[in-house]
Amino acid sequence: MVTIPFEIQEMMRKQKVIVVGSVDLNGVANISPRTAFYSSNDAIYWLDFFKHKSQGNFKSLPWVSIAVIDKKKLSGFQLKGKVSFVTDQKEKIKITDIVSRSATGKTSAKIFEQMSQKTPDVIMFVPKAIYSLSPQEESGRALVVDTADSEAITLLGI
Fold this sequence. Notes:
A hairpin with a 4-residue loop joins β3 (37-39) and β4 (44-48). The protein has helices at residues 6-15, 53-60, 89-104, 108-114, 150-156; strands at 18-23, 29-34, 37-39, 44-48, 63-70, 75-85, 121-132, 144-145. The longest helix has 16 residues, at 89-104. The protein has 5 helices and 8 strands, in the order αββββαββααββα. It is an alpha+beta fold.
């Protein structure tokens, strides 16, 4: 398991945006900025209201990259890992409310009223490796790796 360093969690909180990159079965890349998310020490969660390209990619190829960037400092991080859909109803409600409150200050019920009762899926990302995006550092070498995950080691060439 990879613990998301405090520096990265802090950067996500301050920048208020992450960019999620995924790929479809034809190898076509897709990126999607996310501004409503929540991070714990070992996962990042976000709500998916639209359920289009990214979600289809998540279902067929769950490996994604997440970038968080501080453009003023010209630094950032890329987290590579896997996504899954939170299906436990209690956990889904809990995470939905946490994300909703952190993004808007409103409960999820108020947000759903404004979005015609559309209920989101809750996506959970678990990092397997973390890389620096800072220009002065070697960004091809992982800073942190989940060495207990043999699939990650094989796919990431570590």
